[in-house]
Amino acid sequence: MIHQIPHLPPTLTFGTLAERVGIEIEEHRVQLPTAHLSQHPHDSALGDRRTEPNFQTDFSESQEELVTDPQPTVRKALTQLTQLQNRLMDHLKADEIIWPLSMPPYMADSDVDYLATHFERPWYADYRQILIEHYGYYQHIMTGIHVNFSLSDTISGPLLASGAYPNRNALYFQILKQVSKYRWLITYLFGASPVTENPIDDRMLARRSDITQPVRSWRSSTAGFANHRTIQLDFTNLDTFLASLDARIDAGDLYDLSEYYGPVRVKATDAYHSQHRHSVEYLEFRIFDLNPFTPSGINQNALTVLELLILDALYFPENIDNEMMQESIKINDAIALQHPDAPLPEAQQVAFKQLLAHFKLLQAQAEDGAEWQTTLDDLANNIDQPRSTISQQLVPHIHNDSLQAFATAQGEYWKTTYQNQRQ
After folding, report:
1. What angle do CA 98, 103, 104 make, to 5 degrees?
2. pLDDT per residue over 135-170, tens digit each?
3. Quick one: which of 72, 68, 70 has its CA closest to 153?
4. From CA 194, how far away is CA 402, in angstroms rounded?
5. CA-based R_g, the chain, Å
6. How many other C-beta atoms lie within 10 A of the C-beta of residue 72?
7. Which of 379, 393, 384 is nearest to 214 (CA)?
8. What's the DSSP call for residue 282?
9. Where is region (Disordered) located (predicted)?
10. With the C-alpha atoms ordered 106, 107, 108, 114, is the resulting torsion angle positive or negative?
11. Which pTM value belongs to this model?
């Protein structure tokens, strides 16, 4: 059941949804000519990984993690992300490129051995070993985009004053549930991992050996970057959600909150065992594959869709229970594992049209809603057929069940383009 908040904001302004926005991108350095994960060390000139806020590494030494500072708008976060990407380009070795896909390149046995034996962050090693035991090596070298989002008082203040929500925690939890429910829209439009280069060895993907490639997004499916299916949480309210996470941690099913791989994570003000007694600071959205057609890995269009989904959750909130949350996982999974050229199921086409109607109502209330028009046109163009989705654009580049040649050429192109711009 959908019920609209009685009063849409009279002066909704593009870019004022967030108090702070941060973007994190994970991406691999890859060595040529083999196109295997780079065995060059992370460049120390980028800073000490224990303290450096903008340049980190993740599960492997080749897996760079670029983190923007908190910014007041999506545009400023994207601008800094581009700056960080350029700085990383400056520190690549001559035979290195940035791999532009979420799914890693082919891993020979020697690559896995190197991954297992070369790791230069001892403070992370115990947790890393637990992840290997829980999931194996391949899942955690998949990469993606995380978007951190805190609400501005411009948006939250009037909603709280109207009594539509009892407190800011309720605002955030409504966003968490509703964006999670409609994650399939992001998967449909921006899923960009249609093939895996490691189909036999990857034990996570082996669980779905019934699926024929290409798909929309291996990474976004339950066969990709996901917790084991036995991890089910209680979405009745924020307290029960966080308490159910605590219970999983206490039982040893999760190491800590960072091992929860749901589409939206809560970031609150205190340690996890008392987190549900404190207020939410921001949400972390973990729903985007790397977009190989942009050097930053994500573009304004994708982030505008996320902003519209957040606004939809606030102004057109749905009553979403545990059963609906579990069903949303199945729906997203089905869409993630469709062929990129397949249309959405009929039920999701209907829901897509309803969302677009909401987005247009929000646009009509915005002082500068014309800024959303390109995104709204793109959405309308893709309702009944995937005419410009990323996975569909990747299909012509797939050869012999692989995007290796495309990814290598694209990585070289972005590096050469950047070097030419500097001259």
Report:
1. 55
2. 888 888 999 999 999 999 988 988 998 888 999 999
3. 72
4. 9
5. 21
6. 14
7. 393
8. E
9. 33-53
10. positive
11. 0.93
